[in-house]
Specification:
mainly beta; 6-stranded mixed beta sheet; 1 helix
Length: about 325
């Protein structure tokens, strides 16, 4: 569409040009989307006849350069470009899904129709997916065009997440690439409302677990780390260590003078298995009911700070 493009299941992000020998399809609307001034757009997409001719052919470095049997793609930041962001959802059992958000000319923060806001293709079943949301609109967007001047440090991009996978799965959200001055110069944070975490997605990917279901309120992309209170901010993982002892018990150390107030052990399906108390900087717990697997430990310290850390039980 006029905003941008997203990768399909092969992970290859398409360019704006279609090489010879590649097929494509068009979504064509009969009328403009409510609230969008399509008359000011360069070429209204909701009326007239679609005509293909030789004047559309491009010759140069872009022609015939991308075929979807190959892998890869390039990332480049150009400060003269509109601000655009691509985010990937992957998993340890083969999930791949991508969304894209662009702050471009003529788009609004409402549903502008297929010209700027493309719903996710649900013609075939997706075991897991992410999508963006527009308030008051019952659609799941793969591409969303937004008003170009609405991007600042107060911006919030809601991310929906669905999954039907009922086996233990670790999901990962990661930035594929960014374009534009603002997005290239400022960190992008992922807010996990379910775990009370704000994670710097510009520095590292974010892994999480989930039960089966549809979660429209769990994740948000934000541009301020203070979106959650300081007490809920994620701490540096070096401050806390988790050690499995030879007898199978687990020792948790804060590596500081802070005491452990509580420990919650969560499996990779999101179920809470243990809720434990603590009174000192180092605690040893018997977790005999845990099998050999990956778990999430959510530890609250005496100053109110919360650390969430993934660990593996081997005995």
């Amino acid at each position: 569409n006029w905003t941008m493009q997203t990768a399909g299941g092969d992970g290859v992000n398409p360019s704006r040009y279609i090489p010879s020998g590649q097929s494509f399809f068009m979504a064509y609307a009969n009328s403009p989307a409510p609230g969008n001034l399509f008359s000011s757009s360069p070429d209204p997409i909701y009326q007239g006849t679609v005509t293909f001719n030789n004047s559309m052919r491009v010759k140069g470095t872009t022609d015939n350069s991308q075929f979807f049997r190959t892998s890869g793609g390039s990332s480049s930041n150009n400060k003269k470009q509109p601000n655009k962001l691509w985010v990937n959802l992957t998993s340890d059992n083969g999930v791949f899904n991508q969304i894209a958000v662009g702050y471009v000319d003529y788009a609004t923060n409402n549903d502008d129709g297929m010209a700027y806001d493309t719903p996710r293709n649900l013609s075939s079943e997706l075991f897991s997916s992410i999508y963006t949301l527009i308030s008051g609109v019952d659609k799941k967007f793969a591409i969303q065009g937004k008003y170009k001047n609405s991007l600042d440090f107060t911006e919030v991009i809601p991310l929906g997440f669905d999954t039907s996978i009922d086996v233990a799965t670790v999901y990962t959200l990661a930035i594929e690439k960014v374009e534009g001055d603002f997005l290239s110069s400022n960190p992008i944070y992922l807010k996990d409302n379910g775990m009370n975490i704000v994670h710097n997605l510009s520095e590292s990917d974010y892994s999480f677990t989930s039960e089966v279901g549809e979660f429209k309120d769990r994740f948000e992309l934000v541009f301020q780390s203070e979106t959650l209170s300081d007490k809920e901010a994620q701490m540096n993982s070096n401050i806390l260590t988790i050690i499995e002892l030879k007898d199978g018990r687990v020792q948790i150390n804060t590596n500081s003078d802070l005491n452990i107030n509580s420990v919650k052990i969560i499996d990779i399906l999101g179920r809470t298995l243990y809720q434990l108390k603590g009174t000192s900087p180092s605690e040893i717990y018997s977790l005999s009911n845990l099998s050999q697997s990956t778990y999430i430990a959510k530890i609250e310290l005496s100053n109110g700070q919360i650390i969430t850390k993934r660990t593996v039980k081997r005995r």
